[in-house]
Design a protein that fits this description.
Elements (H helix, E strand, L loop, with lengths): L1 H30 L5 H20 L3 H12 L8 H17 L2 H14 L5 H17 L3 H118 L1
Length: 256
């Protein structure tokens, strides 16, 4: 199923290169790129893509034709394009059964590699191991497979470390979001508490006002009642005084 998936991917790559061909020709005509360094780079990449698609589908004759066309536009073999061409050509010779030519080109490709790209190093060494196995140099092939194993282990460790760092970053972001949510809830809770405290204060003030008014009314009523009682006593006293005065005047009138 993996091989079938790879075949489908190479078929898609072939379709893409076919679609790009007329576009590339038109672009070259519009910008007069034929024979220029920029044009050579573009065509090199294009024909190498065509060769990779053909190799993936085991179309060796087409692959050889595309590699020949790509080589015409590669100025030097000691750069990225040269390295790609050497790898594809070695793969072509491996599939054709020309193992010595494949091994020679693979050796050239290894010499070009600065070994900083571990993933590419694994691919090149995998090709070398396959070639060595085909020519019967199994001990050397086993050593290369051993190197590939350690390279893959290192790559997996780096990938795991990268995933761990990514998870740590996500966790820190999530932790920060949780902290922000917690602070937001605390702020909302504090605002609600402030609103409740303000409401309680207003209610206390209103209650105090009502109590003050009630006390004032009670005292006012009590004072009015006392004033009424004093007034009534004053009226009684006044009536008694008036009666006494009248009696006095009557007695004085009788004596005289």
């Amino acid at each position: 199923s993996d091989a079938l998936g790879e075949m489908k991917n190479y078929a898609k790559l072939a379709q893409l290169t076919q679609r790009w061909e007329p576009v590339l020709k038109q672009y070259f005509a519009d910008h007069q790129l034929e024979g220029t360094p920029t044009g050579d780079i573009c065509l090199s990449y294009y024909y190498l893509a065509c060769a990779q698609a053909a190799l993936g589908q085991n179309q060796l004759k087409a692959a050889a034709q595309h590699l020949s066309e790509a080589r015409q536009h590669i100025a030097a073999m000691d750069n990225v394009l040269g390295g790609k061409w050497l790898y594809c050509s070695a793969q072509l010779h491996l599939l054709q059964g020309h193992y010595e030519a494949a091994l020679q080109e693979n050796t050239q490709r290894l010499r070009l590699s600065d070994m900083t790209d571990r993933s590419m190093e694994v691919i090149i060494k995998q090709q070398r191991a396959d070639i060595l196995e085909k020519v019967g140099r199994r001990l050397e092939a086993g050593q290369v497979y051993r190197d590939i194993y350690f390279l893959n282990d290192s790559l997996n460790a780096q990938e795991s470390k990268g995933q761990l760092n990514e998870m740590n970053t996500i966790f820190q972001v999530s932790e920060k979001e949780l902290e922000n949510e917690r602070l937001q809830r605390e702020n909302e809770h504090a605002q609600q508490e402030n609103e409740r405290a303000r409401f309680r204060f207003i209610m206390i003030v209103i209650t105090l006002i009502f109590i003050s008014l009630a006390v004032f009314v009670v005292f006012r009523l009590r004072a009015a009642r006392k004033l009424k009682q004093a007034h009534e006593k004053l009226l009684v006293a006044y009536d008694q005084l008036e009666e006494t005065t009248t009696a006095k005047e009557r007695i004085e009138s009788e004596i005289s």
